[in-house]
Every structure is written in C-alpha cells, then in structure tokens.
Amino acid sequence: MKQMNRHIRYKGYEVAPAAQRLPNGLFAANLTIEKATAASGGHAYSFDALDYFFDEEHALAYAFRWGRLWVDSHQ
C-alpha cells in the first residue's frame, strides 16, 4: 500500500510521521522517532497505527503531534 512520509527534526530527534493507506480506504497514522545524534547508537522507536483517519493529511498531522508529545515527555 502507498505510504506518505515526512521527516522533521524536533528537539534533537528525527520525527518521521507516515500515513499508510489501508485496503478499507482509511489511513493509519504511523511514526518513527530516532535520536538525531550519532552517539545515540541508532535506536529508533516505531509506533504503528496510532489511530485511523479518512484523510491522509490528518493522519500525518496526528502522528507528528503525537511524536512531539513523546519527545517532550522523554527529555
């Protein structure tokens, strides 16, 4: 299935929200978060299907907002 991504740097993290189109026409809001520095060891956190949306842009916006909240709570 088609997946739209955008990588955004936020407070030292690479936040990569993605909207994955599902067979039923909905979009799953997915997210990958990784510390932007090389010293972090490259550990990434991946969150699949945070929620579902009828609109691709809403799925991306939700995943990015969720990612910012995650980063803010893990600093």
Could you characterize the architecture of this molecule?
This is Transcriptional regulator. By secondary structure, the protein is α+β, with helices and mostly antiparallel strands. The protein has a single domain (3-73), classed as Double Stranded RNA Binding Domain (2-Layer Sandwich), CATH 3.30.160. It contains one helix and six strands, in the order ββββββα. Strands 1, 2, 3, 4, 5 and 6 form a six-stranded antiparallel sheet that branches. The protein is elongated, with a radius of gyration of 12 Å. The mean pLDDT is 90.
Helix content estimate: 10-25%
Gross CATH architecture = 2-Layer Sandwich
Low-confidence stretches: none
Radius of gyration: 12 Å
Number of domains: 1
Organism: Paraburkholderia largidicola
Protein name: Transcriptional regulator
Topology:
Layout: E1 3-5, E2 8-10, E3 13-21, E4 27-35, E5 44-47, E6 52-53, H1 56-73
Antiparallel strand pairs: 1-3, 2-3, 3-4, 4-5, 4-6
Annotation keywords:
1 helix, 6-stranded antiparallel β-sheet, single chain, 75 residues, alpha+beta
